[in-house]
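As agreed, record passed on underneath.
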Amino acid sequence: MATPIIMPKFGQMTEESAIVEWLKKEGDKVGKGDVLFTVETDKSVMEVQSFEEGALLKIIVPPRVNVPVQSTVGFLGTPGEPIPAVTPPAPAPAAPKPAAAPAPGRPAMQPITAPVAAAILPQSRMPAASPQAPAIFRISPRAAALARDCVIDPSGIPGTGPEGRVVEKDVRNYLRQSGYDNLRISPAAKQKAALEKLDILAVARAADGERVTLADVDRALAERPRAMSKMRQTIAQRLWQSVVTAPHFFVTVAVDMTDLLALRADLKAKGAPLTVTDFISEAVVLALKEFPDVNSTTDGKTVQWRSRVHLGIAVSLEQGLVVPVIRNADELTLLELNRSARELADKARAGKLGPDDMIGGTFTISNMGMMDVENFTAIINPGESAILAVSSTVKKAVVLEDRVVVRSIMKITLSSDHRIVDGAMAARFVNAIKQKLEDIELWKHLTS
């Protein structure tokens, strides 16, 4: 009997996933441990292996279709054996997008038109929109053929035929009022616009001239809206949720890193792999022990303190930002913090982070020190009450013991949820991190 291949559930929060690529074709032999396909989850791409031997009899779910977890996506078995009748799982519903209202005096255009072009068209060149547009678009065969030959979108043309049908004279009137006959359209541009289902009039409006070239069509194609990856959608949703639900409060201090950088250089010469982020992480962990409210979360009605510090370290990938979490960071030594951070960062860059590697954080560090930025603010991860933004360390002239000297200065900014962390607490907490980073005797003790 054919064995169903099931879309696995990656992590407690995962309700749907999409296959990125089938690595086996129908009819291919499959061995135990062979990778059948890859799956895009909220924050990573995971490989799905086979637990059975046989042949891939049938692919039910094609790539790039979101389906609920535990759905049947294919069948494995012996060549020739019957395959159970299975209805392909319904794609997971996407959030509806609000339709843009058409500008006054201009017909609505369907998605094949260039959005920027529609916004810059002078109203005098467009026919007035019908006040009673039909609910169903109707067009005569001759009118449809003319629109197709001219490479235009006829859906916004007011129809004068029966039941609002667009007839040939309506299309000709539209072309005349739109200045179509005055356009100089290169054959290559027209051919490519037709192939890509672009409205040549929309391309002309965006080009802001009477000549339409292949470069204009390529530019319109480049400006077309494109679907965000699942990772980007998740990042956008969570950051929007955080900004909307948590009132952010920001505090910035400047940290003198001169002595600590000198100590790190000495340790590195002796073979210690410690990074600046490791020292910052340890300072944060120590400060969180002193300020337990910062290691808490709130829903606006209750406050929950977390007794353990699960430290998130933001890692920038080409696909977006991920935040792997170092579990029980408060129980780790400085070298153990370094080892855990490196392992998680390597997994992130290899695309092997599991969803469980990125949930449950209680505090996050976002370090852009390598990006040559003097200062920035970060958005709190949902479920946490604060995040620390770490900027670049730069040499500056500062006053030290009434003398102007050059020191290595690093700015750190705490973003905190003002519902639970008030301004005074935020200031004391971020200064506690500063004090620890500047306490060179502390670090000599922790690295001895």
